[in-house]
Design a protein that fits this description.
It contains four helices and eight strands; from the N terminus they run ββααβββαβαββ. By secondary structure, the protein is an alpha+beta fold. The protein has a single domain, classed as Gcn5-related N-acetyltransferase (GNAT) (Aminopeptidase). An eight-stranded mixed sheet has the order 1-2-3-4-5-6-8-7, with helices on both faces. The model has no long low-confidence stretch (mean pLDDT 93). The structure holds coenzyme A. Coenzyme A (COA) binds next to strand 5, helix 3 and helix 4. This is N-acetyltransferase GCN5.
Amino acid sequence: MFPVELNGRRAGWREITVDDAEVVVGWQSVPEIFTYIESPEGTTLAGHRQLISGYVEDGQRLDDRRDYSLALTVDGQLAGTGGIHLRDGDPSCAELGYLLHPDHWGKGIATEAAGLLLRFAFDTLRLHRVEALTRPDNLASRRVLEKIGMTREGLRRQDVHLHGRWHDSLLFAILETDPVPAAPSSH
Ligand SMILES: CC(C)(COP(=O)(O)OP(=O)(O)OC[C@H]1O[C@@H](n2cnc3c(N)ncnc32)[C@H](O)[C@@H]1OP(=O)(O)O)[C@@H](O)C(=O)NCCC(=O)NCCS
């Protein structure tokens, strides 16, 4: 499906464009964003533009789109990135992720945004299962996943190499038959 546009009260998702690259590259100099996730440090503006035009091309071209790499907006302005990636072997299952600029933290934005992704996954894409992985000490992200109705299923030991050492990941998931909180809203 292309293009995707999801709108909540404050948070929204739209297709990422090459024009977003400059802002996204600027986030490399905001270390708080990358405490628990890998930084694209060193990726140039040209590199980001190339990456994004690849997403756009694939999104438009592929009948069986698997990669929904999207721009996260707050009040219509670019404020983060994220999306849903359908599993290669079984596209009824997917993984979601998100990254929000710290200017917008603590206002319920990620909860609203992740909730929009879940409703898109189940209502539009008709997926069966959506997963998310987070570092155990990423308490804000764990809370977001709980608030959108995901269940903690287990711990994957040392499956991410980040900032020079191995880290565990917590696996959260939700099934199409699980209750999804109706309308996560911003504070
Ligand atoms: C994780 C992230 C998306 C959260 O965004 P956000 O918009 O601030 O999240 P929300 O406001 O919707 O919800 C955050 C929740 O975590 C809680 N929280 C935040 N920091 C916390 C902490 N240190 N300890 C415990 N709870 C915490 C908040 O109180 C809130 O819960 P509440 O509504 O029950 O009070 C944001 O911090 C981020 O982008 N971080 C960098 C990238 C990243 O780590 N992405 C996730 C990868 S798995």
